[in-house]
Design brief:
The complex is a heterodimer of chains A (226) and B (519). In chain A, 35% of the residues lie in helices and 24% in strands. Chain A is α/β, with parallel strands linked by helices and 226 residues long. The chains are: A alpha/beta (226), B alpha/beta (519). Strand 9 of chain A pairs antiparallel with strand 9 of chain B.
């Protein structure tokens, strides 16, 4: 079946070559836009434009104050957290403890049976993650999966907070794909998701609604100096 | 789920007349131009060098299709290297059987689906229900039309034909209580209901916007996040992907992602773009443990080898639908196929046979708005014209002798300046005999199609060349060009043939005039 399938495609591709379309030569960097002088400000601006809440802070203490403010505003019972060096430097575990929020993470979920894991994740009311990279021009966060960096960790709760540091920010989408390729295509994470906004739908009379499956509220905290 | 098998083709003209008379549908479609259509235009305008980027995407598609078999083999090897399984499905039935088998093997009872037109194309839901599975569409629009037992009418806004009142009714029936007619509330209801399904489903089925050969990456683009949940929670992920979705290199992806979102919804990027690379890695807590890629031919290889192979460039963004004055008036269901709008008018006859879909190539004014909106610049109007030509030359087409004679005479008179002059002169004589204005409202008999939905312009009472000659006479002292008006040219080679043709032409004009005067 496979052989016949590929043979059929091979013959069709060959006979289709007489109908190839004429295309003009295109410069290699066509469509590259970049992010200007201040990529962090650009990132925050674009995040806001697509319906997120972005803030650029100078350092970790300022970032802590912002996180504390958000935690007191949402008063989450259960927070699904990534395990990430930036979140450790921020001291997130302590901040959550102080706020009286229960943290669920890879460490707490791993020993549980599958159904229990799922139920706990589905019950989370806040997701806190970092990112692998961010793209300033589009206001995009790239989150790559790994043990401790769950797919659900930026997806499953009604609110998602992402903590980003300057070194993670790239100007353009093209830069992101170059970075991922430079890290080795054979080692691509099993899932890389690009997030550009809170979950949206226009399926009811083209009226925009948010939070249909993913988080309806999307907060991005960008730290200049870490 | 209602199905629409090959023998159930409906008549495009009848279906469009019905659509035009449906005030609800007209209200829903009326929003398209100012929303999605306008956003598409704005997005191209805002992107510097957008034309070059679209050209690049087009170039990649063209080059990929020229070596498609090799890229498929590379893709297969990459997916297997990442621990996934690859299946080759010749047609819809083969694909259904393969997917049924995977589902049986893992003993699944509940399946969640992210939006996939390819699964619509193979009528997958019915096939899975027939083996005792519950299939739940999770895209909000798809969920609504699944509950309403309808089918999508737009590539990216599947429930665009439903008004708020319809949606409220459909979801209220599902809820068993009256829900408020408010999009936010309805959305919240659907979120809660679908979360329940996500929590239980053993299998997630998706399509794929792109499949990258060198990495085995299947790309899913959604705005709601249902594609992410479908590939995060269920134990098994099945991606059903048409073979034309393959692109060779990882570095090609940003080119397509940049044009896809802009074309589809005017966004720089869709909210969620998932690059899935096989099953989860050791230690990960979510993502599928098992990944299957089903590569679907179902007529694509036939198109690949023929003159309309460019239709395989399509990345299913829906921009041509939003731009099309016909689609915006009649909606997606009038087209009768899985794929609607300008691109549907091209590919439905290709997948499903031209004679059965003979109305579709004519369901266009050839205005070119579709080509202008297309992120890969597919020459849709040219392809529609080619299909119209095929309708006349195909073996199964029934030749119309009268039509053949009429066009033959017309072509003959256009090839000879002398005959052309005679015929235009005759037309003005007959036009003077006719009463009525510049438009003919109704033509009888076989010609009624010309005037069924528009007026036919009446021949002018005087020819341009006569008018020009008069003007020249007024403005210059010289005598006008002697060849410009009746009597015709002085030198007449092959006089016998020309005289015979002139007689035929006169008869043809008499026939036309008879029709015009016959009321």
């Amino acid at each position: 079946m496979r052989e016949a399938f590929l043979k059929r495609v091979r013959e069709a591709a060959a006979s289709g070559r007489q109908y190839r379309v004429h295309t003009a030569d295109v410069p290699a960097r066509a469509g590259y836009i970049g992010a200007g002088d201040d990529p962090l400000a650009r990132l925050a601006n674009e995040v806001t434009l697509v319906g997120g809440h972005a803030q650029v802070v100078e350092d970790l203490p300022q970032a802590r104050r912002e996180v504390v403010a958000l935690l007191s505003r949402f008063a989450p019972k259960s927070v699904l957290c990534w395990e990430h060096p930036l979140l450790d430097r921020l001291g997130l575990a302590e901040l959550l403890q102080n706020a009286g929020a229960g943290a669920i993470s890879h460490a707490s979920l791993s020993p549980l049976p599958l159904t229990e894991q799922r139920q706990q994740m589905l019950a989370a009311d806040l997701c806190i993650s970092s990112v692998s990279y961010a793209v300033a021009e589009t206001g995009t966060l790239a989150v790559a999966s790994a043990p401790g960096r769950e797919r659900c960790g930026s997806l499953i709760a009604p609110v998602h907070l992402a903590i980003v540091e300057a070194s993670q920010v790239l100007p353009d989408l093209f830069d992101l794909f170059e970075k991922l390729e430079a890290e080795g295509l054979e080692r691509l994470p099993s899932n890389v998701t690009l997030i550009t906004g809170p979950s949206k739908s226009g399926d009811i009379e083209l009226t925009l609604t948010t939070g249909v499956h993913g988080p309806g509220e999307w907060h991005v905290l960008v730290i200049r100096n870490t | 789920m209602s199905d629409y098998a090959r023998h159930e083709h409906h008549d495009f003209m009848a279906a469009s007349a019905e659509a035009m008379a449906d005030p609800g549908l007209q209200g829903a479609l009326g929003k398209l131009a100012s929303s999605l259509g306008q956003r598409n235009k704005d997005a191209w305008a805002a992107l510097e060098g957008s034309d070059l980027l679209r050209e690049k995407a087009r170039k990649i598609k063209d080059a990929t299709l020229a070596e498609l078999d090799k890229h498929l083999e590379t893709l297969e090897a990459s997916v297997i290297r990442r621990g996934g399984h690859v299946h080759f499905a010749d047609d819809a039935e083969a694909a259904r059987t393969i997917i049924q088998q995977i589902v049986r093997d893992c003993g699944a009872k509940k399946i969640v689906k992210s939006k996939s037109m390819t699964s619509e194309e193979i009528h997958l839901n019915g096939a899975l229900e027939s083996i005792g599975c519950q299939v739940v569409e999770t895209d909000l629009g798809e969920y609504i039309i699944q509950l309403a037992d309808e089918r999508p009418s737009h590539l990216v806004a599947p429930a665009i034909h439903k008004r708020l009142a319809d949606v409220t009714e459909v979801l209220s029936r599902d809820a068993g209580r009256q829900l408020p007619a408010d999009p936010t509330e309805l959305c919240a209801y659907a979120r809660g209901r679908l979360r329940g399904h996500f929590a239980e489903a053993e299998v997630g089925i998706t399509g794929g916007n792109f499949a990258v050969a060198e990495t085995g990456t299947v790309v899913l683009v959604t705005n709601e996040g249902n594609g992410r949940l479908t590939t995060a929670l269920p134990r098994v992920h099945i991606a059903l992907v048409g073979i034309e979705k393959v692109i060779p290199k990882f570095a090609d992806l940003p080119v397509f992602l940049k044009v896809l979102a802009r074309a589809a919804t005017g966004q720089k990027l869709s909210i969620y773009t998932s690059l899935t690379n096989g099953p989860r890695q050791p230690g990960e807590l979510d993502g599928p443990e098992e990944f299957h890629l089903v590569l679907l031919d179902n007529g694509r290889s036939k198109i690949l080898g023929g003159p309309l192979r460019e239709s395989l460039f399509c990345i299913r963004c829906g921009a041509c639908l939003n731009a099309c004055p016909i689609y915006r008036n009649v909606g997606g269901h009038a087209y009768g196929g899985v794929y609607a709008g300008p691109i549907g008018a091209v590919i439905t006859p290709l997948y499903d046979g031209l004679p059965a879909n003979h109305h579709l190539p004519a369901a266009s004014s050839l205005c070119g708005a579709c080509k202008a909106a297309c992120p890969v610049k597919i020459a849709i109007p040219d392809m529609l014209v080619k299909l119209r030509e095929q309708l006349h030359t195909a073996a199964e087409a029934k030749p119309n002798r009268l039509e053949g004679l009429a066009y033959g005479l017309w072509a003959r008179s256009l090839r000879s300046p002398w005959l052309y002059r005679v015929s235009t002169w005759l037309a003005t004589r007959f036009s003077r005999l006719r009463r009525g204005g510049r438009w003919i409202k109704r033509l009888p008999g076989p010609l009624h199609g010309w005037t069924g939905s528009r007026d036919f312009p009446a021949p002018a009472a005087s020819r341009f060349r006569d008018w020009w000659a008069e003007e020249e006479k007024l403005h210059t002292s010289q005598s006008p060009n002697p060849g410009a008006s009746w009597p015709p040219l002085g030198i007449q080679p092959n006089r016998g043939l020309l005289v015979a043709s002139a007689v035929l032409l006169a008869l043809w004009n008499l026939f036309l005039v008879g029709i015009i005067l016959w009321k």
